[in-house]
Amino acid sequence: MSADADPITRHTRSRRELEEGIERDFGRNLSYGEYLDLGRVLSAQHPQAVPPRHDEMLFIIQHQTSELWLKLMLHELTSARELLADDDVQPALKRIARVKHIQHTLTEQWSVLATMTPSEYAQFRHFLATGSGFQSWQYRAVEFSLGNKNADMLRVFAHDEAVQAQLEDLLHQPSLYDEVLRLLARRGHPVPQEVLDRDVTQPYEAHEGVLDVFAAVYDAPHEHWLEYELAEELVDVEDNFQVWRFRHLKTVERIIGSKRGTGGSSGVPFLRRALDLTFFPELYDVRTRLQDVTPEGYHGGTSRG
Ligand code: HEM
Ligand SMILES: N[C@@H](CC(=O)c1ccccc1NC=O)C(=O)O
């Protein structure tokens, strides 16, 4: 007999539930909690402070949610790199669009943490010992995927072989920018061979020849629309990343002022230096190179000044 036909079950279910057909018998199917493994997720908060401090739960959940979004971002970026390598540009653009929304969510999220005062944080900061964001391997993986390669950063993960191996692997893979430049070369743009053959484990260095390629694209967007769109998507991703870094910096500043970081850095001054980093240098240099159009019409090429 179905649950609806059973008079006892019928009477214990509210009229609204019956009308809407809401399912309550999850005995045989994978339930919401099982599917999401909520038992594990919701029992993974382990505050360390003794005596317990109210605000440590916020600190933990802020980090855990950030790590979940970083996991998805990495998933999307990995796929975007593979799609670009296969000349599947439109699906890659779709991945990048999702990355941008994740970045907005991560940036918005700082406002929740900013409700924590310096006094509240001081109640449990001591219990974090030398833990710090330096040890977020997923953050480092995102930086590597976008192109900020830095082999030194692997040292922090020496205690975790599996994680270190994963980062080492990413270090050796072409970044999103490397894949875009290779794609441009396949589409006939004169990307210098030394850029295409570069050692991808090294930090990317700006090249005049790549700037020339982007200058040609930005000079005549309608002739190179796909390249133009892709380039602007990358600029959006970098812009979003910098806004996240800036909000981290300002949140840290209002919570610990100019104290040194638990990870051993100078704290705010260290975070401020990261604002000068760029993943896609020529995409910013091209802004300077581009000449303004005069009232007489076409400006006749880009400036080298
Ligand atoms: C009260 C909150 C926070 C404070 C005071 C803080 C402070 C700092 C400081 C001082 C550093 C430099 C490393 C050090 O010496 O410790 C750092 C790095 C970092 N933090 Fe935070 N942080 C906070 C929250 C967060 C959150 C919620 C995340 C999200 C995942 C995060 C992610 C990172 C990352 C990824 C780095 C490394 C940045 C890099 O290498 O460029 N932090 N943080
Ligand atoms: N670096 C922070 C501590 C901190 O934020 C943190 C500590 C343990 C685990 C993650 C952390 N988050 C990011 O830096 C501080 O100096 O207060």
Automatic annotation (TrEMBL):
<dbReference type="GO" id="GO:0004833">
    <property type="term" value="F:L-tryptophan 2,3-dioxygenase activity"/>
</dbReference>
<comment type="pathway">
    <text>Amino-acid degradation; L-tryptophan degradation via kynurenine pathway; L-kynurenine from L-tryptophan: step 1/2.</text>
</comment>
<keyword id="KW-0223">Dioxygenase</keyword>
<dbReference type="InterPro" id="IPR017485">
    <property type="entry name" value="Trp_2-3-dOase_bac"/>
</dbReference>
<feature type="binding site">
    <location>
        <position position="262"/>
    </location>
    <ligand>
        <name>substrate</name>
    </ligand>
</feature>
<feature type="binding site">
    <location>
        <position position="125"/>
    </location>
    <ligand>
        <name>substrate</name>
    </ligand>
</feature>
<dbReference type="InterPro" id="IPR004981">
    <property type="entry name" value="Trp_2_3_dOase"/>
</dbReference>
<keyword id="KW-0560">Oxidoreductase</keyword>
<comment type="similarity">
    <text>Belongs to the tryptophan 2,3-dioxygenase family.</text>
</comment>
<dbReference type="GO" id="GO:0019441">
    <property type="term" value="P:L-tryptophan catabolic process to kynurenine"/>
</dbReference>
<dbReference type="GO" id="GO:0020037">
    <property type="term" value="F:heme binding"/>
</dbReference>
<keyword id="KW-0823">Tryptophan catabolism</keyword>
<comment type="subunit">
    <text>Homotetramer.</text>
</comment>
<dbReference type="GO" id="GO:0046872">
    <property type="term" value="F:metal ion binding"/>
</dbReference>
<keyword id="KW-0349">Heme</keyword>
<feature type="binding site" description="axial binding residue">
    <location>
        <position position="248"/>
    </location>
    <ligand>
        <name>heme</name>
    </ligand>
</feature>
<feature type="binding site">
    <location>
        <position position="121"/>
    </location>
    <ligand>
        <name>substrate</name>
    </ligand>
</feature>
<keyword id="KW-0408">Iron</keyword>
<dbReference type="InterPro" id="IPR037217">
    <property type="entry name" value="Trp/Indoleamine_2_3_dOase-like"/>
</dbReference>
<dbReference type="GO" id="GO:0019442">
    <property type="term" value="P:L-tryptophan catabolic process to acetyl-CoA"/>
</dbReference>
<feature type="binding site">
    <location>
        <begin position="59"/>
        <end position="63"/>
    </location>
    <ligand>
        <name>substrate</name>
    </ligand>
</feature>
<dbReference type="Pfam" id="PF03301">
    <property type="entry name" value="Trp_dioxygenase"/>
</dbReference>
<keyword id="KW-0479">Metal-binding</keyword>
<comment type="function">
    <text>Heme-dependent dioxygenase that catalyzes the oxidative cleavage of the L-tryptophan (L-Trp) pyrrole ring and converts L-tryptophan to N-formyl-L-kynurenine. Catalyzes the oxidative cleavage of the indole moiety.</text>
</comment>
<protein>
    <recommendedName>
        <fullName>Tryptophan 2,3-dioxygenase</fullName>
        <ecNumber>1.13.11.11</ecNumber>
    </recommendedName>
</protein>
